[in-house]
Amino acid sequence: MRARADGRTGPQGLPRARVGLPPSQGALGRGPADSVALALSGIEVKYRARRVLQVDFLELPAGRTLALLGPNGSGKSTLLRVLALLERPDAGSLTLLGEAVRDGEGQRLALRRRTATVFQDPLLTDQTVFDNVAMGLRFRGLGGGEVGQRVERWLDRFGVGHLTGRRARGLSGGEAQRVSLARAFVLEPEILFLDEPFGSLDLQGREALALELEVILRDAGIATVLVTHDRGEAQMLADQVAVLLDGRVAQCAPVRTVFERPASPAVARFLGIENLLPLTRSGPDEVRIADCPIPLVLPSGIARPLACLRAEDVHLSLEGAPASAGSVHLAATVVHVVPYGVPYRVHLDAGVPVIALAARRTLDRLGVAPGVRLVASFDPGVLHLLEDDAPVPPLPLAHRPG
Amino acid sequence: MDLLFDGITHGVALILRGDPQVMEIMWLSLRVSGIATLVSLLLGVPLGMMLGQSRFPGRRLALGVINTGMGLPPVAVGLFVSLFLWRSGPLGFLDLIYSPAAIIVAQCIIALPVVTGLTAAAIQQLDPRLRLQLLGLGASRLQALRFLLREARFSIIAAVMAGFGAVISEVGASMMVGGNILHYTRVLTTATVLETSKGNFDIAIALSVVLLGLTFLVSMLLTVLQQRGAER
């Protein structure tokens, strides 16, 4: 049983995955060892002396879903192959289902047989659908009627029960991926590894299958590691998200935290937060965006603050229109308008570049076109503050301290 | 023209009559080349799989050598095998020269690179992630290997056909290491050369027709095997 609606924290209210921390005091309050499906520390993978992956610490509680989210080449698939015991890391240690993973192939095989992996492409063998789904059970030495029942049950569960006698080569992409998922679930694994499981599907098929998978995962309660570059998939399926950038975990936190409070500008940019507005201190208790004062108290310790602001939180209105109280109003000029999905993206110049989302109707009402002057408003409460990570421009010699 | 026509009618008559000499030679050819193909299969398929899917230093060189070996001239093989098997040669104590076993050895050397090279190519054509997928479903390394072999089966049957075709049709090596001894090491190709040089065109034609027919039958058998799997 998984409680997904409530707080996304572990049994003791601790964050369920910690990054960059050794499993020290924080881990002591945990339940029995088997409540952690998977834990790793100090994992490093090198290809030809180039380090492609370095993860200090990561763990996945039993029954939860962890998304490894990152752009192409960020090392997320490599990490999945290491976790699924399909690739040996150059350094580090791994614990799966309470067992420390050793070098011997015997133990690795035994542990692999308690897990299952699904890749982006269905990778079905040239056999019938039934034989494909039965394959893993037969690897485990099972046979007879039990295999048949389990295979049929999971084919039905993924809506492809009618294909059981068909040859796998003739299936459509969507059917093949459903068979591929059934082939993993039929094993009733204790940990499931999904590497971009919808990557080979078109947008519609992708959404439909993701929705189904969400329900099945919730019912089955299998600890799952999901590799994806798609933020929506991570939001839909995961409890916990680890954002991988350049082979390192840039943030690991419950899914809402990651999306609402990204840990760094790099994470915020990857998550698609359109506006990272530099804040300037104009007085002891005053900060500004461009020339506009913001009613905000800067926490100490942030030297070069950036404010994350989602485009959908920016409201556009005409100059001189009645303003809502408590909002920040930036005078802005439209630079250009880009149709992007259903809402349009409006690029503005408010002293700093600002992006807003608006429906076609709003654009018509406001007469939005390049050069038009508007007011861009937002609730300062939605701002999330970060430390700028861009290199500091060098100070003129005369002002250099010390 | 008469010569050709007479030769063909006599040749066909010899086959239809089941001429004991022709039959004897045919069976020896089939046995020798069959065993040679089988041995090269047993060695070449595992070797080809290893070359096809593992990465180790010198792999490219090994593949290059194997691919060169696919076009190995049978006379050159015959020469070197002879040098080794002659009474005075390093392997002379085995007393194999001018025996069917010597022909098998030479034909193995001809077929092995063909089978190995084509198997390696077949394995490399498979999606490299298929092996990871099989392991990810709980296959042991051996089980994964078996499935990969199964996926590549059509290409591997083609490799068998190519290997058999190469050895059943070669003449140089059989002649040099077997010696074309009547009732002992005379195979279809060496007999055809001999009978042609003696002017016995009817026997030579009969032998050629048998050789062609044999190659056709074996290839057909393997093709049926291959396509039965493909069409299902």
Summarize the structure.
The complex is a heterodimer of chains A (402) and B (232). With 402 residues, chain A is α+β, with helices and mostly antiparallel strands. Helices cover 25% and strands 31% of the residues of chain A.
Question: How would you explain this protein's 3D organization?
Answer:
- The complex is a heterodimer of chains A (402) and B (232).
- Chain A is an alpha+beta fold and 402 residues long.
- Chain A contains eleven helices and 21 strands.
- Chain A starts with 24 loop residues before the first helix and ends in a 15-residue tail after the last strand.
- The N terminus of chain A is likely disordered.
- Chain B is mainly α.
- Chain B is built from eleven helices and no strands.
- Chains A and B meet through helix 3, strand 6 and helix 4 of A and helix 6 and helix 7 of B.
Task: Please give a handful of descriptors for the protein shown.
heterodimer; A: 402 residues; alpha+beta; 6-stranded mixed beta sheet; 5-stranded antiparallel beta sheet; 21 strands; elongated; disordered N terminus; B: 232 residues; mainly alpha; 11 helices
Unreliable stretches of chain B, pLDDT < 50, 5 or more residues? none
Name the overall outline of chain B: globular
Biggest interface, chains and residues, is: A-B, 25 and 18 residues
Q: How large a portion of the residues of chain A is in β-strands, by DSSP E?
A: 25-35%
Largest sheet of chain A: 6 strands, mixed
Cα distance spanning the termini of chain A: 60 Å
Please tell me the overall pLDDT of chain A. Answer: 85
Radius of gyration of chain B: 20 Å
Structural class of chain B: mainly alpha
The neighbouring-strand order within the major sheet of chain A is 6-7-8-3-9-10
Number of strands of chain B: 0
Oligomeric state of the chains in view: heterodimer
The structural class of chain A is alpha+beta
The number of distinct helices of chain A, counting runs of at least 4 residues, comes to: 11
**Helix content bin of chain B:** over 70%
